[in-house]
Amino acid sequence: VSANLVCWTRAAIDFATQVDVGGLDADDPHADAVFRAIHQSLPISQESGGGAAAVSEDDVLREFTRPITSNEPTLVFVTGEKGTGKSHLVRWLKSRLGTRPSWHVVYIEKRNTSLRRVTERILAGVDTPRAREIRAELDRASAEITSDEEAMNALLARLDQLVTFDQAREIGNLPEVSPAELAELRRKANRLLGDFTFRRELSVPDGPVHRIVRLARGGTEPTEDVNDADLHLTETDLQVDPSAFDDLGQELQGLIAALVSNRGMRADIAALCDWYLPQAKAQVFIGRGADLLDVFEDVREEIANRGQELCLLVEDLVLLHGIDRQLAQALTIPASARLCRLRAAIAVTSGYLNSPSLSTFTDRGLRYTLDLNLDAIGQVGLRDFVGRYLNAGRLSEQALAASSTDTANACLSCPELQRCHDTFGVSRDRYGLYPLNEVAVDRLIGLASPGEFRPREILRQVIRAPLEVAEEELGAGGTFPSSRFARTLDPTRSQLDPQVRDAIRRLNSISPEAETSLRAFYALSPPAADVGLEKIARYLGDHLTEGVADGAENVDVHYGEQPKSGPDPNTRQTPDEVRKWTDEQALLSSSTANRVRRWICETLVAQLQNGSYGVAVRKVKSEWRIGSHTLRVTDVVIERAQGGGAVERPNPFRISATDENAALIRGVLAAANGGGLDLSAGEWFFGLQTRITDYASLLARLATAGADAAVPPAAEVLTVMRHVSAEPGQIVRSALTPMLAPTPPQPLNRAVSDFLREVRPVRDEALTALRDYATAAKGTGRATLLDIGLLYGDIRSHMSARSVAGLPGSLLGRFQALQSRAFTQAWAEVSTALVAVGRVIDPGEDLAATAEIVDRLVDAAQAKGKLPRADTLFAYREARAGLSVDAMDVYRLLSKKMIGKSSPGDLWDLCPDPLPRLEALARYATVTNDLLAGMASELVSAPGGGSVDTGALIQAFRELADMLDNVAHTGGR
Amino acid sequence: MVVTESLAARAEAMLNRLGQAEAEAASQQARTEVEVARVRATRVTSDLRAAAEAIPTLEACGIVVGPAASGPLLKEAVRARAALRTAATSMVGAPPIEVAGRARTHSVEISLASAEKLAKSVLNSLNRYVDQWRRDNLPERIDEPVISPGSDHLVVRLRNLQRRLERTVDSLTAGDLVQRAQEIKDDAAAWIAERPQLDADLERRHPEVREFLRQAATEEGAPLYLITPVVATWLKDAENSLDLRVVLRS
Q1: Which of A83, A330, A816, B75 is deepest in the core (most CB within 10 A)?
Q2: CA distances (Å), A610 to each of A26, A279, A782, in order?
Q3: Highest-confidence range of A54-58, A190-194, A624-628, B196-200, by mean pLDDT?
């Protein structure tokens, strides 16, 4: 016989585990049988006089069914928080009423509790003229409302009318608002509710009004939790989008702006609307002619005429929003000769009864509160709770129907009873816990309902979901419990350390997931395999790995050691950061994550440097340049880790939050702290090493990717740019040095100097490309060898090129643009200088010969005092000293270019700055020219020149001699 | 500007020009020196000749012309004559540069200076002889003021004659001396002939007017009391007072 029985039916489990007893039809015998099967007594306290006393269900029943001896109604309130079983107790009361001919019982369920249906329920069995009128009114109101949209429109219109035209000068939920302020609030509310756009905003699907309308029209689904707040309008419901009102008038826009920005204003208007909301709902969904007080009066008269009492049971009063206050008021009307006696059991949330406006109602009733703290129920009680549902799921409909007050035990007819109960255990009712065990029940309840009793969650998460998984896996002969088991409660099975889970997966090749789930949920002290666990494993056919222990919190613990955890299945040591990361979806802190990232990056770099990858590696600040690729610490992408930055990296080294990676991270952290690599026998490192190697290979490929596109332009740029050197080289071998380390001539032309500065990023980019793609690394990873073979062809083909051409924005294009601009600027200055020189000296002049002859001329003129000015000699010698031997060659070369066609490639001819030489040449030629011009003026031939008349002199001397001779003879007379 | 001639070519041309200019400068110097010496010799010769030619004319006017040069000057003149003749002889056939050099010699320079000094001495002596003759032949009352009874042509002429006759003869060339001697002779004759006409005009005036004019012509001037009613009446005639000025003296 196969041990892996599926001894329950999903339908039975689903029926029994409806999250609320309201899902069970009140008048269905099968539902009643199921209810009896699953019912479990819960602790109850009775509140009276400010104190509370523990009572039993039977005490409540006794009090409720006690004969009424006065005209006062008997009111029993069952209070408690949402989901605590209030409705269950009301339902239990009903189930225990038995046959009472003198009672007219009206049971108002939670399911399908539309306002109309509630009213119809109350009128059930009453056929009076007034009842018929009310039914007609209900029919009319129902016919008017055919859709949620129509209902929303009608409700808002009714609300608008009530808010605007009600004459009350004060309302209950705005006690501090003056009449004037209330009038102003009414005006504003009217302005808003009367506006089509505002109504549309409130009426959006799943919006506030739709929510209210849907509840009022269709009641609630059995599985739906309804909050009290869902039945009301609150200030958050009025938080509309102002942009929706852009096309409307300023007055309304101003009001909307005030509404959106003023929370107090929203709260006041919401309170005003909410005050009138029940009335509006009643009028829309029941009809304006149907007054519940009248209905009740008619009903009680009719019942009194029959000689009966009215017994009203309400599963949730709050859901009757709209008629709840009228109902409360009707229930306080005493009995009389005309009106029958009345008893009512009403489930309601605790806060509802605290409203002052209901004090008359609440003061007249007995209040019982379900005390659902876990201590009161106890662990065994919880197991019993689960056991009842499991048993209900195993019983057939006939078996349930055959049960009267005592529910049958399905296990009694099972051939596997003995072994099953021995293995999985039983509740106190002797219901087998299969396919769970006590530990699993406790642990799942602890996860589903931590710290408190939340029966709905227990039904969903502890019974229904695990049994669905078990049914599928056991029924198909598969391994149970798989990773799907209790996945919504603890998907990672965090009772086990990630390393333990990882070890199980690696070591258990048969049923790793089943072993993990068993150790996590069924073991007394996870992950240790106790005797009970081993029996379950054998029963289910699951394999348990030998020697698996939890070494997570102490990284020095190795597999094979005994577990340290105690017998308490729900306690475990405080998880470390890594375990929180994997099990609790917590973020790994940036400091931890960055240590891991750095360690992995450094390991990668070490591998690249020491392996046969041949790529150059160097560290730049916090990054590593691997050929053309840059490795950053953020390339190590750790799932759910801080400090990784927001930028998506193209080639990440991913570490997802898995158990295997938890071991990896622990190992890395230990190694980063100076420890060895042998944590957990070093298994993490072996796994990592494979990934490191693969990733290093990827980096090596990335490092050389794109070489075909990057190297040729880089080589071309550097080849052309070598011309900046005084010796650019004419063959590849001699060109390499000026390519890589050019030595510009001095003085360097200013425009060329500017060009070199501006082109530096381009040159650096070209050099980087060569370094990244054309260098090889030796052992240390540093770029040491230039692989000229990759460049030879590109260099050789551009040896004679003096300029480049490329697309704008490309390396060549940028170089081209910069060279062109630099040449334009440099050539403009040189052209100006050439023009100046050309005015005073012809390019064909033999400057050496000229200087020699002018030197002679200056010396001769100086000797003869024939220099034009006193400073001519100094000026000439100064200009002569500044003259360089090659000035004339430069002048001739550039003059030819000036006459011919110049191009950016001529920039290199301007590197040895020609301007000083041209200026010196111009100065020398100018001084010489001035000298020659001045001497030409000075040496003009003297006028009147001719032969010397010596004869006249001789004659004059002789005549004088004769005259003197005469005077000497005459004595002067 | 297009450079049409190379700097070297222009420098060569200028170097050649510089040599040529040097030669031209030397030639010009020689010519200047020869010319200067010739001019000096010619001018002295001309002066001495003019003096010799003026003496007969002066003597014809009545001027007594004595010896015109001192003994030492005459001795120098003899030596200068010899030196100049020697120099002239040596220059014959010599190149201009050499002629210029000889003209610059010290002996020639001394000779020319002596000749010039002699010529100047002769001329001064002739001036002195003529002035002495002038003083000796001044007419009477040449030193009295020429009193004008009114605006009168005669008065002006007499005053011009008086001024010229009283001017010393000095620093005139030989030719000028001849002309001056003739002027003195003519002026003295004119003075003698015309001076009495003025006296006659004055006598025709009222005595008080004559006295007033006589005093007014003196250096001290006429006192106010001489402006009598008659004189005042006479003065009211604009023509009579045309030459009169009132001078305030302290």
Answers
A1: A330
A2: 79, 83, 11
A3: A190-194
Contacts with A969 (C-beta within 8 Å, 6 or more apart), sequence order: none
**pLDDT of residue A799 exceeding 90:** yes
Instruction: Say how far residue A147 (Cα) sits from the centre of its chain.
Output: 39
| Residue A751, C-beta contacts closer than 8 angstroms, at least 6 positions apart | A822, A823, A825, A826, A829, A910
B window 87-116, beta carbon within 8 A of A: 87-88, 91-92, 94, 96, 99-100, 103, 108, 112, 115
Distance CA B86, CA B108 (A): 9
Which of the four pLDDT bands, split at 50, 70 and 90, describes residue B41? very high
Task: State the Cα–Cα distance between residues A249 and A233, nearest whole angstrom.
Answer: 26
Q: B98 vs chain A: nearest CA distance in angstroms?
A: 10
pLDDT tops 80 at residue A525 = yes
Task: Note if the pTM is more than 0.80.
Answer: no
Q: How many CB atoms lie within 10 A of CB A163?
A: 25
What gap in Å lies between CA A38 and CA A391, rounded to an integer? 8
Neighbours of A687 (CB within 10 A): 17
Contact A257, A246 (CB under 8 A): no
Which of B2, B4, B10 is most worth mutating to test chain A (most A CB atoms within 10 A of its CB)? B10
Burial A634-656 (b: 16+ CB within 10 A, else e): bbbbbeebebbeeeeeeeebebe
Determine the Cα–Cα distance for residues A427 and A378; give it in Å rounded to an integer. 13
CB–CB of A840 and B15 under 8 A?
no
Q: What is the pLDDT of residues B49-79, one digit of tens each?
A: 999 999 999 998 889 888 888 888 888 889 9
Kindly provide the b/e burial profile for residues A9-24, where b requires at least 16 CB atoms within 10 angstroms of the residue's own CB: beebbebbbbbbbbbb
CA–CA gap between residue A121 and residue A292 (Å, rounded): 12
Question: Quick check: A941 and B37 CB within 8 A?
Answer: no
Task: Name A310's bridge partners.
Answer: A104, A342
Among A925, A946, A968, beta carbon nearest to B74: A968
| A647 contact B CB<8A | no
Identify which of B7, B45, B85 has the shortest CB distance to residue A841: B7
Residue B132's pLDDT is 93
Would you say A649 and A632 are in contact if contact means Cβ atoms under 8 Å apart? Answer: yes
CA angle B49, B53, B54 (to 5 degrees): 120
Termini Cα distance of chain B: 81
Task: Evaluate whether A156 touches A193 at the Cβ level (below 8 Å).
Answer: yes
Which residues does chain B have within 8 Å of residue A839's beta carbon, measured at their own beta carbons? Answer: 1, 3
Of B6, B45, B125, the CB nearest to A960: B45
Q: What's the rounded Cα separation, in Å, for the pair A840 and A844? A: 12
Per residue in A318-363, pLDDT (tens digit) is 777 777 777 888 888 889 888 999 999 998 887 777 777 777 788 8
Q: What percent of chain A has pLDDT over 90?
A: 31
Angle between helices B106-136 and B7-61 (to 10 degrees): 40
Contacts (Cβ under 8 Å, ≥6 apart) of A802: A720, A723, A903, A904, A905, A906, A907, A908
The overall average pLDDT reported for chain A is 84
- ∠A257-A262-A263 over CA atoms, to 5°? 130
Rg, Å, chain B Cα set: 32
Q: Which residue of B has its CA nearest to A972?
A: B68
A865–chain B Cβ distance below 8 A for any pair: no
Which residue type, as a one-letter code, is found at position A380? Answer: V
Alpha-carbon Rg for chain A in angstroms = 53
